[in-house]
Amino acid sequence: MMPANNLEQLTALDSLFLTQEAADTPMHIGMLMFYTPPKAKKGPVRFKDILETFRARAHTAPIFHRTVGNVPLGIDYPFWLDAQDLDVEFHVRHIALPTPGDWRQLCIQVARLQARVIDRSRPLWEAYVIEGLDNVGFLPPGSFAVLYKMHHAAVDGASALEAIHALHDEKPRPGKASPPADYQPLSKPGSLELFGRAYINRLRSPARWLKAVRDIAPIPGRLRQGFKEQRLQSLKERHSTRFNGPISAHRAVEARFFDLDEVKAIKASVETMTINDVMVTVVAGALRKYLESKGELPTFSPMAMIPVSYRSEEEQDAGGNLVTAMSMAIHSEIEDPLERLQQVHEESISSKGYTEAIGARTTQDLAQIIPPQLASLAVLRSGTQLMFSSGASAPVNTVITNVAGAQGPLYLCGAKLVCCAGLGPIMDSMGLFHAVMSCNGKISIAINACRDMLPDPGFYAECIQSSYEELRDATIGDP
Question: For residue 32, what are the β-bridge partners?
Fold first, then answer.
């Protein structure tokens, strides 16, 4: 058990996801996972079995049993507090699609669920068991899905998957799991104690500033050299698309699934390529097709934010966000998929160099010494509104994240996990989020978007499929 004097504090980045949140801007990650019914004779998985699994394993990851404790007067970032009474039946909900229960209805339902903020007075997660999927083409009858919603303040993509995997077994027969007999939540500290901890943290700020100055001193020289060598030139060129305005409260969700071995074959067919290069190229092609259909194909290259994890092996079980981000041109203006793939690969190398020049942990350390008041929602939103009113171009046009899940079989109450899709949060000026996720031999590209900006998600999914097939045919040929 963690002693009371070791309360964990949210980092500046974790806290940012709380201050950015508003009714029209929920800041949670979504993981949509699909399960086929057990082959055993015991019958279908019952909802109460899933409830019991969550109840028995809620202790396995901090996200499931911690709440946010705000510091009086907001003088420091919040602390994580143990929930004194976890109500699993509040967090895990059971719904069914109406007839005919097809893919389109599932996407609409998931989009509506994604649009709702998570109750911040409780642990920051929800799970929706979704039945009635008998007309979702790639699933056999009796299959179900689970939409896991986890607040980005508590997890990044990698730690969210770690938490979800802890609910599963590696064999069809469910394992027995229960909280340790001596498990007790930490007592909730009073406001005075939190204020005292925060006050001490602020007194330590001068030392943090000195360390930060030492860390950032070499950065300007590294960046100047990068621009001089033309490796970072694309970062100077920023323009806006339809996805860069103020967002609404409505969401659009879609996904496409591909064979992971086939994607690996595409990667291997072109020397030095990575799976991420392949999937970014597919996204770039889809964006090209979609914008071209609207008469909005730009002559410039759209820019994408690519989150990059710096989570070490020792930090695999840690919660929170251990990510930085690189910005790169994805070259949707290039029609030929092979040429686009090569350009994406070169941009990826350059952008990684830019990110390494700054240093991921240096960025995190710098953010940590910024007073919480300066990271408030009002400050952030006023800056965004100033950008819109001044006609300034957006920093990036979309987000593309890539999270690798377990490649071996996983089971939830005996039901086999067959594929999954990720859903990231959107915000003003970033109204389209692509999540690449792999598990169990499948890899998916899923989108979460502002519905006012992308009113036809089914068509965008067709653009993803078409872009993938063009790249596949140009590399390994039509199977």
Answer: 147, 421
First to last CA, the chain: 54
460, 454 contact by CB (below 8 A): yes
How many separate domains does the chain show? 2
pLDDT tens string, the chain, 479 residues long: the values are 333 456 888 888 888 899 889 999 999 999 999 999 998 667 789 999 999 999 999 988 999 999 998 887 677 888 899 988 899 999 999 999 988 899 999 999 999 999 999 999 999 999 999 999 999 999 999 999 999 999 999 998 888 999 999 999 999 988 776 666 556 666 666 666 666 666 566 655 555 544 444 544 454 554 455 444 444 444 445 688 999 999 999 999 999 999 999 999 999 999 999 999 999 999 999 999 999 999 999 988 999 999 876 555 555 555 565 667 788 999 999 999 999 999 999 998 877 654 554 444 444 554 554 555 445 544 455 444 444 444 445 679 999 999 998 889 999 999 999 999 999 999 999 999 999 999 999 999 999 999 999 999 999 999 999 999 999 999 998 77
262: domain CATH number is: 3.30.559.30
Position 126 in a domain: yes
Rounded Cα distance between 108 and 411, Å, is 26
- Rounded to two decimals, the pTM is 0.85
Claim to verify: residue 192 and residue 230 sit in the same structural domain: no
Per the structure, the complete domain to which residue 439 belongs is given by 219-475
> Does an H or E element contain 91, and which?
helix 88-91
| 126, 93 Cβ separation under 8 angstroms | yes
